[in-house]
Amino acid sequence: MKKYLCLFVGLLMLNGCSYLREVWPFGDEKTAENQTQEAVVEKADALKVNPYLWQAALDKLSFMPLASSDAEGGVIVTDWKTFSNNEQFKVVVHIYSQKLQANSLKAEVYKRRLKNGAWVDDTVDNRLSAETENAILMQARELYHRDVMTR
Known about the structure:
six-stranded antiparallel sheet; 4 helices; disordered N terminus
């Protein structure tokens, strides 16, 4: 019994330390990166998605007509855009979380071809989808680093 009581008191003391850190007025040890991450989380709470991923996706897809975007749901859908006489592409981007990481993002590039005067859906282009995801991630990291450097 004494062993469990000591363990319980120890856990209470550890829990109290985290409270002390919040109310202690001296020695704020937050780094600039932690402060920036907190600012990102505050912005992301308003957006429900990572703001750097969201802005990067909009930037990278700005050359295509935008069909719809939902910041709360984290979905961006472009309209079909013709790049040659017989091919059109459409992109759908899903942002799943507020974290700036690769598994928070999914891009799908759809393709269709003109055959006998009608547009026929082709398969999802996995190579272009992966390249689009990578381009968005690189842009998001650049936006994040630019934001950190200006603070």
